[in-house]
Amino acid sequence: DTHCHAPQFSFVGLGTGVPLLQWLEKFTFNYEAQFKDLEFAKKIYPKVVDRLLKNGTTTVSYFATIHLEATKYLHDLCVEAGQRALVGKVCMDRNGAPHYVEESTAVSLADTEAFIKYCAEKGSSLVKPTITPRFAITCTEELLSGLGALAKKYDCHVQSHLNENRGEIAFTKELFPGKTYTEVYQAAGLLTRKTVMAHCVHHDAADLALMRTAGTGLAHCPTSNFSMFSGLCHVRQALDADVHVGLGTDVAGGFHPSLLSTIRDALHTASAIQTNGNAQNANAGLTFDEAFYLATLGGAEALNLENSVGNFIVGKAFDALVINTATAPIDLFGEETSRQLLEKFIFTGDDRNIEHVYVQGRRVSGSS
Ligand code: GUN
Ligand code: FE
Q: 204-238 as b/e, with b when 16 or more CB fall inside 10 Å?
């Protein structure tokens, strides 16, 4: 899962059907503000890690909140549970809510660096920090370039949102005149081979070229893009432009914490573009194989983790699911090939079929 907001699990399934900027103001900032209280985080975060593991998510890139202590706690939980994770303390020094914005640019940068150092001290090979400007709207230029400098200093992962929604893009243009949205991040040193940008629904060829040159990944979040009317991300164009693409649940913009339903929504997004089609969209389709790739090796490439995970090449870590296809909700009729068993699982299975989950060779979740 290349893009997931751990604190938003506190309202997953609620607040759907509202476009991005209103959704942030009406629901999200209020829920996230509660993580100032570590006791609140202790109620929510263990459930997130557990729920994602049960759904077979071996690697996840998490946004936490602006709170350093709760973000450290999320890091520790992932280490303890054995989930491979990138964890980011969210940065926002403007345009949050009065009760949900960081005190200053300096505090945002200092807390980000403190979190990077905390992770380094803990020394986990599974869980790493990721520099996390929420999106350009909530960050001053000074904060963005400070975060770019930290990314360089620590050779750290980076994640943010990009080109998700038309209202968001228009506001970004007002805040950063003379640059495209993608150029705002590029100018700050935030487009790197270790960066993943969520959504990229409204990309054009110039955006894709910048991402490709930087080696920056695209986290395709189709469930969220439907729920918040963000639009249809043309993944075929991104793949044809040699951009690394993975899948993200974007919980709670997306309402389902499973990559299975995300694969289905990715296929339906491509199908909707193609069905809508004219000559220009004739090649918008994604195949089943490509969608499965986006959920596995594609995701690993988007997070710059392809040397350790994504497939079963000798030398990579053993991250794997043991699937029982002979149980509900899958129905088999006896003649299925192994390839067809995979298709049945992806389209008709769920967490009830996932018997064991392994990360780095360790069994981290399972029914027995
Ligand atoms: N853009 C800025 N913040 C968010 C968020 O929490 N979710 C989504 N989907 N987009 C964002
Ligand atoms: Fe998001």
A: eeebbebbeebbbbbbbbbbbbbbbebbbbbbbbb
Task: Give the number of other Cβ atoms within 10 Å of residue 201's Cβ.
Answer: 24
- Ligand 1 atom 9: residue of nearest CA: 253
Cα separation, 48 vs 202, whole angstroms: 30
What is the distance between the alpha carbons of residues 218 and 241, in angstroms, rounded to a whole number? 12
Mutate to test the pocket of ligand 1, among 5, 101, 172 (most ligand atoms within 8 A of CB): 5
Cβ 44 vs Cβ 64: under 8 Å: no
Give me the residue label for tokens 């003379």: 178
Alpha-carbon gap, residue 217 to 185, rounded angstroms? 13
Give a three-class secondary structure readout of 96-113: CECCECCCCHHHHHHHHH
Tokens found for residue 249: 């649940």
User: Which residues, in sequence order, are CB contacts of 71 under 8 Å at separation 6+?
Assistant: 64, 65, 87, 88, 89, 115
Residue type, position 344, single letter = K
Mutate to test the pocket of ligand 1, among 61, 161, 165, 227 (most ligand atoms within 8 A of CB): 161
Residues lining ligand 1, judged by CB closer than 6 Å? 5, 20, 24, 28, 134-135, 161, 164, 224, 250, 253
Q: Which atom of ligand 1 is nearest to the CA of 254?
A: 9
- The structure's pTM equals 0.97
- Cβ-in-10-Å burial (0-12, 13-18, 19+) of 274 comes to middle
The pLDDT tens digits for 37-76 are: 999 999 999 999 999 999 999 999 999 999 999 999 999 9
pLDDT tens-digit readout, 130-155:
999 999 999 999 999 999 999 999 99
How far apart, in whole angstroms, are the C-alpha atoms of residue 362 and residue 83?
A: 10
E-assigned strand segments in 35-126 = 59-63, 84-88, 90-91
The backbone torsions φ and ψ at residue 190, rounded to the nearest 5 degrees and listed phi first, read -100, 0
Q: How far apart are CA 247 and CA 174, in angstroms?
A: 30
| Tokens 């392809």, located at residue | 306
Å from CA of 226 to ligand 1 middle: 14
